[in-house]
Amino acid sequence: MSRQWMFAGLIVVGVGAGATVLTKVGSEVAPVQVGATAPDFRAVDLGTGDSVSLREHYRGKVTLVNIWATWCVPCRVEMPAMERVYTQLAPRGFSIAAVSIDEGPPDDVRAFGQELKLTFDLLQDRSGRIQQSYQTTGVPESFLLDRHGVIVKRIIGAHDWNSPANRALVERLLDEPGT
Fold first, then answer.
1. What's the Cα-to-Cα distance from 159 to each of 65, 111, 139, 146, 174, rounded to whole Å?
2. Whole-angstrom distance, CA of residue 94 vs CA of residue 79
3. Residues 82 and 96 sit within 8 Å (Cβ to Cβ)
4. Does pTM surpass 0.90?
5. What is the mean pLDDT of residues 17-32?
6. Contact, 51 vs 123, CB < 8 A?
7. CB-based contacts of 89: which residues, under 8 Å, 6+ apart?
């Protein structure tokens, strides 16, 4: 009889330990969704060559985080609209962190930006860690953040960021008080 109780006790301890681990791990993997704080990441700013952090570099700005690649046709399609909204709203505090997941050399990503005459920040994450952090399903995928780093809009696929509705949303976010 004591063997049965010992076995039952081990099962109870095992279930308790498993529940504790799941609770701890589950709370660390929060869903990346509207209303959540955007995960921080580090990527190389191809304009300066510096490694930058989302939270440090874009603090207090309305920021569009766009995860993309040079080989992605829909990415190429949406970039001109991103450039138009950026050039018009950057003076008010709007930023774009366009993070390339290309594994190739930074010069390939820079050449892409020069070809499309992009003036917003081109970043590169050759490791692809940003895709894990942001739980992306492919490219392009975009996250519009308010001045506090909270996700207000998440878009999978190419999107017209210069549409009247999107411009109005960005302008409303720019009008809100910063940190």
1. 13, 22, 11, 18, 20
2. 16
3. yes
4. no
5. 59
6. no
7. 167, 170, 171, 174
